[in-house]
Each structure stands twice: as C-alpha cells, then as structure tokens.
Specification:
This protein is α/β, with parallel strands linked by helices and 421 residues long. The protein folds into 2 domains: 143 residues, Leucine Dehydrogenase, chain A, domain 1 (Rossmann fold), CATH 3.40.50; 153 residues, Rossmann fold. It has 13 helices and 12 strands. Helix 6 packs across helix 7 and helix 6 crosses helix 11.
Length: 421
C-alpha cells in the first residue's frame, strides 16, 4: 500500500482545528479571539490560463491563503500537485502561523498551491503557469506582505521565476519577495539542508533528555526527497545509525546500518530507493512499524493514524513532514510514551533559514554557511526547550504544548495591536 492510500481520518485543516481548539481552551482564550485566530485573513482563488506546448489552452486553479499577519508578513510555501485543495491550503497556512510563532520569528502564516501534475508538464509549461500565477497574486505578495517559498514539487527554479516576474512588474529587482532561491539570485547558504538539519537538531535535543548517544541510536526515515534525503545524509555524517529509508515506491531496511552516501547516489541515478542492493526491500508504510529508536516521517501527511499508531516501536518520533500524524494517533502515542517532536517544531528549520534569507536579502549582506547553521541551532534549541517546558507545565503532549506556545504568542501580539475597525 502506498502512503496515499492510508486512511487520513481528518483533513489537514480539520487536524489543525482540532489541536487548535484543545490548546485555545487550555489557554482560556475568549470566544471572540479564538474565532479570530482560527479564521484566515484572506483566501485568494485564481484561474490560470496557459497555452500548453501542444497549442491547447488549459486553465489551472491556484490558491493563496494568508492566515495571520499579527507578528509580521505572511510566510509559506507554494505546492504543485493534482490533489491540491483550498481546504488543504487553508490548514497548511494556519500551521505556518503556529510554526513561525514556535520558532519566534517575525512572520505570520500563508500557503499556496496550483492544481496540476508537474510530472506531465514541460519546463516551459511550468514556467508559464508559475509566471501567470505570480501575476494574478501580485498585489498580495511582497517582502512586507507575503513571502512565498518552495514546497511540494516546487524548487529554486520556481522561486527564481516568481522573483523575476514580480521584479519585472514593479520595475526593480526585489530578491526578498521569495525565499528558497538559487544562491546566485539572493538565496541563503544552508537553505537546502535547513529542514533536514532542523530535524536532526531537534532529535539531538531529545537524545539529551534520554541520555542517549548518536552512535547508539537507530533511525528510520520515511521520505527521501529534500527533507528526508538531507536528514539521512546529515544524521549519517553525525554518527546516527540510519537503518531504513523509504520513498513513495518502497523502502530499504538494514539492521546493521545503511551506506547512506551510496543509497543517495542510487536515488540520484534511479529516482528511487527501490532496488538498492544494501538492504532488504520493505513497504513504505510497513517501514514505519519496524524496531528503531527514532522514526522520522518526512514524506506526506497522515501516515500515522489510529490504525497503526499502536504498532509504532520508535521511542522518538521526529516529524519532518507536515501533519504526518493524525489527532487520534497523537493520543495513542502519548499513552504509549512515545516522545513526539511535532512538525511545527521539528521541521521549523526550513522557515527559520528562509527568515535568514529574507533578512540577508533586505540588508544586501550574506552570511557564511557556518553562521547560518549556528544561528539555526540557536533558534531550534530555544524552540525545543520552550515547547518541552510548556508540556511539562501544563501536563500535555508536545504537540498541544507547541500549539499553546504558538497561540499564546500570536494572541499576545493581537492584544497589543488591537483590532482595527
């Protein structure tokens, strides 16, 4: 069974709303402010006419949801996929608000998406779709308004097209309109590895709590894209024993440890972990239930549900993907003593270094990678400690603690600013 066939139980938005409601009640936030914090600031729907290479005119649906601007400009990725929905984008935009607040960086949350199948489109078609989408939302984005970034099936090239389109319209180059750009166009050193590195930093902090060492820790990673692949490489280099890696086509397991550099070379050549000779084949959902110390789902949402949560054997669950665990599964994992590092904490490295990129673009001065990584670690450690303290103080699991910390910070900003009317 592929990850896409698993029971999702709740949509991304429903999962976010369920966790938000629990955290808001525990913070005793009044009904009006609760409604305000749950409601997106703006939802933009656009229809994108594009001439395909065949000469056929096609119209694609695009979305941009800006959830909250109380702490600063909106921040969030743009994804291209055939199953993108407004409800999904709405939920992910809210998650970005909470993620930025957990990291304590001065952004609100947003998310965007276009309903398309990039695997069936040429580079030229993708460029035309991207540029027209940018033109349609031009009035709503900008360094002081909303700063997009790459997400599922988008990359540095996509961001370069957006930056160029925006710059052509306003008649001067504005690199800070997006992050995740090529380094030669104002991107930051360390951005590509940032989400995977952040997952490792968060896992390091969990190991310290349990008195464990990296070289004694067995890791299984679901996902071998930018997040999972970089996490596998960085954790292997740091001394972790990576025993399993999976992608959408299947997985590879070796209890003695995988040769991660060789595996990543195989993935580069074949576009999949499948067929790698350094381990035994296993299903991409079955791998989640194997014996390990750290499980790092970094593929897609809702892969751990009430149907398989009781079979998770990991002591630490580090969420590299957005919403990989459903709310019913949260309760099961908490009761079983699994230490969950929730997505809005664990995968916050990407948005943190995106913030660094935005800062560097605005000041026109760029930092060496060592400084980027040092500052990333400082923010991730502070965020981890803050979430754990909240959890211990309020006797809740780490996910609700992260939501409480985030909501408390955003609510405080709203109260200070007041409501303009």
């Amino acid at each position: 069974m592929s990850a896409l066939e698993t029971d999702k139980e709740l949509s991304v938005y429903e999962s976010m709303a369920a966790r938000f409601d629990v955290a808001a009640r525990m913070l005793n936030i009044d009904e009006g402010l609760t409604k305000y914090l749950r409601t997106p600031n703006r939802e933009i729907v656009v229809h994108i006419p594009v001439a395909l290479d065949s000469g056929v005119l096609e119209v694609f649906d695009g979305y941009r949801v800006q959830h909250n601007i109380a702490r600063g400009p909106c921040k969030g990725g743009i994804r291209y996929a055939p199953n993108v929905t407004l409800d999904e984008i709405r939920g992910l935009a809210a998650e970005m608000t909470w993620k930025c607040a957990v990291a304590n960086i001065p952004f609100g949350g947003a998310k965007g998406g276009i309903v398309c199948d990039p695997s069936k489109l040429s580079a030229g078609e993708l460029e035309r779709i991207t540029r027209r989408y940018t033109a349609e939302i031009l009035d709503y984005i900008g360094p002081e308004r909303d700063v997009p970034a790459p997400d599922m099936n988008t990359n540095e090239q996509t961001m370069a097209w957006i930056m160029d389109t925006y710059s052509m319209h306003i008649r001067h180059t504005t690199t800070a309109v997006v992050t995740g750009k090529p380094v030669d166009l104002g991107g930051s050193q360390g951005r590509r590895e940032a989400t995977g590195r952040g997952c490792m930093i968060a896992t390091d902090q969990a190991l310290k709590r349990f008195g464990r060492k990296r070289d004694e820790t067995r890791v299984i990673i679901q996902g071998c894209g930018n997040v999972g692949g970089q996490a596998a490489r960085l954790m292997h280099e740091a001394g972790y024993k990576v025993i399993g890696v999976a992608d959408m086509f299947g997985g590879i397991l070796n209890a003695h440890g995988l040769d991660v550099p060789a595996l990543l070379m195989h993935v580069t050549q074949t576009k999949s972990v499948k067929g790698f000779a350094g381990g035994e084949s296993i299903g991409n959902l079955e791998i989640l239930e194997q014996d390990c110390d750290v499980l790092l789902p970094a593929a897609t949402e809702s892969v751990i549900t009430s149907k398989n949560a009781h079979r998770i054997k990991a002591r630490i669950l580090t969420e590299g993907a957005n919403s990989p665990t459903s709310p019913p599964a949260d309760d099961i994992l908490f009761q079983r003593g699994v230490f969950v590092i929730p997505d809005i904490l664990a995968n916050g490295g990407g948005v943190t270094v995106s913030y660094f990129e935005w800062v560097q673009d605005r000041q026109g001065y760029f930092w060496p990678e060592a400084l980027v990584n040092e500052r990333l670690e400082h923010i991730m450690v502070d965020a981890f400690d803050g979430v754990v303290r909240y959890g211990e103080k309020h006797r809740v699991n780490n996910r609700i603690a992260a939501y409480m910390l985030a909501i408390d910070r955003v609510a405080f900003s709203v109260k200070l600013r007041g409501i303009y009317a």
